[in-house]
Amino acid sequence: MPPTALRADSRRHAWVAGQLQRWQQLVHGDSARLASCGFPRMDFCMTSPPFMPRHHRWNPLFAGDPRKAGYALYLKQLEKIFAKVAKILKPGALVVVQADNLRHGRIYTPLVRDMSMAISETLAPHGEIIVRWKPAKPDYLHTHCLLFKRA
Ligand SMILES: C[S@@+](CC[C@H](N)C(=O)[O-])C[C@H]1O[C@@H](n2cnc3c(N)ncnc32)[C@H](O)[C@@H]1O
């Protein structure tokens, strides 16, 4: 699957593939094209989508394509991607999404809430786990792992 809309990180892909026995099953590509991967139905999904501050125009889900700029389109694309994820999950499958709220000076992006609302269009909210770092990081106290279930 060619990573057209993806800011491809092929070095990461190569590193992860090097840790796996069945590395041939590791796909490097755009999650928006999930349907064409031929994956079997899944029991579990764990992911951390690229984060976007609400005042940016550069949309990471489209590698900054100016025709797809802005936070509204970013959230819409997240919604579409998770609708595709839902299609390849087994009923009752659990989805874990790691996300953070963002602060840039005075501008605050409630990304955890916004991401949760986008994903909840197709997956049922199931809970949230707050992960605190050990050792503590003074400027990054915790992160959020949002839980969803496929109906
Ligand atoms: C917040 S980071 C998650 C990093 C990951 N948790 C890790 O530890 O390596 C978001 C990742 O999504 C990837 N990404 C960006 N756009 C994507 C897309 N359309 N489809 C799939 N992955 C994408 C980025 O390359 C980046 O590696």
Descriptive overview:
The chain has 151 residues and is an alpha+beta fold. It has a domain of 104 residues: Rossmann fold, CATH 3.40.50. The site of S-adenosylmethionine (SAM) has 14 residues, from loops.
Strand-helix topology:
Layout lengths: L9 H10 L22 E6 L23 H17 L1 E11 L2 E3 L2 E3 L1 H9 L4 E14 L2 E10 L2
Parallel strand pairs: 1-2
Antiparallel strand pairs: 2-6, 3-4, 5-6
Helix pairs in contact: 2-3
Bound molecules: S-adenosylmethionine (SAM).
The site of S-adenosylmethionine has 14 residues, from loops.
Characteristic key phrases:
alpha+beta; Rossmann fold; disordered N terminus; globular; 151 residues; single chain; 4-stranded mixed sheet; binds S-adenosylmethionine
So, the CATH homologous superfamily of the domain at 46-149? Vaccinia Virus protein VP39
Distinct ligands: S-adenosylmethionine
Approximate strand percentage = 25-35%
Helix content: 10-25%
Supply the number of helical segments: 3
Q: What structural class do the secondary elements suggest?
A: alpha+beta
Q: Do you know the CATH topology of the domain at 46-149?
A: Rossmann fold
The CATH architecture of the domain at 46-149 can be given as 3-Layer(aba) Sandwich
Compact overview of the structure:
The protein is of the alpha+beta class and 151 residues long. It contains three helices and six strands; from the N terminus they run H-E-H-E-E-E-H-E-E.
